[in-house]
Amino acid sequence: MKIRAIDWLGGDPLLRSDWYELMKYALDKGLKNNIWTSGLPLENLETARKAVEVTEKGFISVHLDSLDPEIYKKLHGGDSKKKIKGILKGVDNVQSLGKNPEHMINCITYTKPVVNDVEKTIRFFFKEKKMRTCLTQMCLTGLAEERKDWVPNLEEIKKACDTRDKINYPDSKYSMGPMDTNKFYCGGMICVTVNGDVTPCSVIRKGFGNIHDLPLDKIVKKHKEELLFVHIRDKKNLHGHCSSCENNAICWGCRATAYYESGDICGSDPKCYKNY
Fold first, then answer.
1. Interval 44-102: pLDDT, tens
2. Distance from C-alpha of 164 to C-alpha of 122, rounded to nearest angstrom
3. Residue 184's closest CA among 135, 252, 241?
4. pLDDT by residue (tens digit) across 169-185?
5. Is 275 left (phi over 0), alpha (psi -120 to 50) or beta?
6. Which one, 37, 189, 193, 200, has least CB within 10 Å?
7. Other C-beta atoms lying within 10 Å of the C-beta of residue 261
8. In 3D, which of 180, 183, 176 has the Cα closest to residue 233?
């Protein structure tokens, strides 16, 4: 199927006892490994060394929503000061072992608690760690449905996206909107959940077959249109502003947000301020 890379998502994939064996096997098969981790396991120098080894041609993403212990505590359990220190130590470990900061990302889940703090975090990572920030939105599904009060308004989302663009991409005239992945990523990947369901996105949990029932290649062949968003590559099949947006060359809005908040996977992204 000409698959080129695997993004290892979680939870935290580095908490699996067999993560290194799996990623080494993928690397030996000629695939790139991209790791999305909390960053905490990287505090262990040997774990960091192995992560750098298996992501030789890929990237490593850590997840630090805020450098402020009080804000971090609202979003995550445990000792917030210790966790923040651990994630930053993990970043330093990885970079000391030769990982290019250009191939690293800090991921921020953008919520109400970090609205007034997000610029500080983006600037810190870009200035001190030479890393860009991946800004993602709360999608109202799963546990997030219980915290609707954490969803930022459109004005707050616009401010955060403008800040991200100004700091991380000052020479670009395009923006990827509130969800920091472009249409080429979303239209060129599929997701296999921990239960084996095959979906078009790690957030959209609407499955199109299960690898325990049918081989992956046959599922993709049968459901290619849905899994790779083939139909919306034609802008006429996008509904609302996303079809005519000035950023449509690289962005078609977040399909997961459209799906869960409007029920229309082809609809306008309700979290993108450009739609209003």
1. 999 999 999 999 999 999 999 999 999 999 999 899 999 999 999 999 999 999 999 99
2. 7
3. 252
4. 999 888 877 778 888 88
5. alpha
6. 193
7. 17
8. 183
